[in-house]
Amino acid sequence: VHACSREGPPCGLWVKADKRSIMHHGQRWHGDARGGGENKKTTCPWSGCDSQMLANGIPRHILSAHFGVVWICTGTGCLKPFGRHDSFKAHSRKC
């Protein structure tokens, strides 16, 4: 669980560290759109972050860049860290 640092009220609220919880928090407390806009570039809503991404990539970005979530490969002798789950899964298939 992490504190939300998005700009504007009401934040500072706690959010579970998973994409679904981040998305629902944004919809409920920050007026984020429900669906649509996936192919639109947008700026990260996190205070002090000006990273650009597709709108549907915001939860993934918040997980890795702002919550510091990492996945560690448990392959024999590997232990390589990944900031994105999709990269971790692709690596795990080969490791």
Structure description:
It contains three helices and six strands, in the order ββαββαββα. With 95 residues, it is of the alpha+beta class. The chain has a domain of 65 residues. It has a two-stranded antiparallel sheet. Strand 5 and strand 6 form a beta hairpin. Helix 1 packs across helix 2. It is elongated and about 45 Å long. It starts with a strand and ends with a helix. The mean pLDDT is 90.
Q: Which helices and strands appear, and what pairs or packs with what?
A:
Layout: E1 2-3, E2 14-15, H1 19-30, E3 41-43, E4 52-54, H2 58-66, E5 71-72, E6 81-82, H3 85-94
Antiparallel strand pairs: 1-2, 3-4, 5-6
Helix pairs in contact: 1-2
- The helix-strand sequence is EEHEEHEEH
Low-confidence sequence ranges: none
Share of residues in strands: 5-15%
Query: What value does the Rg take, in angstroms?
Result: 15 Å
**What's the average pLDDT?**
90
In one word, what is the shape? elongated
Got a strand count?
Answer: 6
Query: How many DSSP H or I helices?
Result: 3
Structural class: alpha+beta
Q: What is the percent of helical residues?
A: 25-40%
Outline:
By secondary structure, this protein is an alpha+beta fold. The protein is built from three helices and six strands; from the N terminus they run E-E-H-E-E-H-E-E-H.
Keywords:
alpha+beta, two-stranded antiparallel sheet, 6 strands, elongated
